[in-house]
Design goal:
about 290 residues, mainly alpha, two-stranded antiparallel ribbon, 10 helices
Length: about 290
């Protein structure tokens, strides 16, 4: 289920009252429940951040950790590590999500690292005007500013030219907007067109196979019995997405209604793209 992947990443966040003392060379860290590479690297003052910690322990995407796992801290960890520059920040704008902000500013570790850095527990709880700290390695919001150039003064006319006869213009007929049937076939085809606009891979057969397994093609399907339902975030819609996953992987231009067939399919395929490479690679519960 989508739920298991997202809720595991943002299960519990522990805040530290003071930065821990730097570790001596060659020490280890035992993973606690709910910890992530980003949080451990920050707590242990690991030079190079979570990427160096992942590399030192040969951990690759999706960077899964298990409670009790022993990690080796990079050997150059020392108290003399240089003081880091003040972190960049970003002020939340209308329509922002963790995924969209992390993608825009190329946050190392993606939206999970952004959530950890700001102790965000719920994807749908970003407030307009909220100030988020961007993890080290993110691109700077300062690059968003645009420069307005001063207008160049018009040159004085020196020669009067005879007026050129206006050319006849041809009125083009507007191309009618593409329409889709309001049924399972139409929803999948419209979703594929939206996915193509955003570079999200997936095929008709891959989507159809997974949604028939998850919901039997019912856009109003909801799971009220599994562990996610017990947590208050039941799986919903054609591809059985929980609310936090839908919020994080919502695709611009689609509805914010999780039961909307096209919005549900495209968000689920966007998640599958980032988690598995494509919805076509999903062949069972996820």
């Amino acid at each position: 289920m989508f739920a298991l992947a997202c809720t595991a990443l943002l299960s519990t966040v522990q805040s530290a009252s003071a930065a821990p003392a730097a570790k001596t060379l060659g020490t280890t860290h035992t993973v606690q429940d709910g910890e992530t590479l980003y949080r451990i690297a920050r707590a242990e003052n690991v030079p190079g951040g979570w990427q160096a910690l992942a590399s030192a322990n040969k951990i690759s995407s999706p960077y899964t950790l298990m409670a009790g796992q022993v990690l080796t801290l990079p050997s150059d960890t020392s108290p003399s590590a240089p003081t880091k520059a003040s972190p960049s920040t970003y002020t939340v704008q209308p329509g922002d999500t963790l995924y969209r902000i992390a993608h825009k500013y190329q946050v190392p570790g993606g939206w999970q690292a952004l959530a950890d850095a700001n102790d965000v527990y719920r994807f749908d709880r970003l407030a307009i005007g909220q100030v988020l700290v961007l993890p080290d390695g993110s691109s700077s919001p300062a690059g968003d500013t645009t420069t307005t150039k001063a207008a160049t003064p018009a040159k004085a006319a020196t020669t009067t030219k005879a007026a050129t006869p206006a050319k006849a213009t041809t009125t083009k007929t507007a191309t009618p907007a593409k329409t889709y049937a309001n049924n399972l076939d139409g929803w999948i085809k419209e979703s594929l067109d939206v996915m193509a606009q955003h570079g999200i891979p997936g095929s008709y057969n891959g989507i159809y196979r997974n949604l028939m397994r998850e919901s039997s093609g019912n856009p109003k399907a909801i799971n009220l019995w599994d562990s996610n339902a017990a947590k208050g975030i039941p799986s919903k819609g054609l591809l059985q997405v929980i609310d936090p996953t839908f919020q994080a992987y919502h695709v611009p231009g689609t509805s914010w209604d999780i039961y909307d067939p096209v919005a549900n399919i495209t968000a689920a395929c966007n998640y599958a793209y980032h988690r598995y490479g494509s919805i076509d690679n999903v062949n069972g519960p996820y």
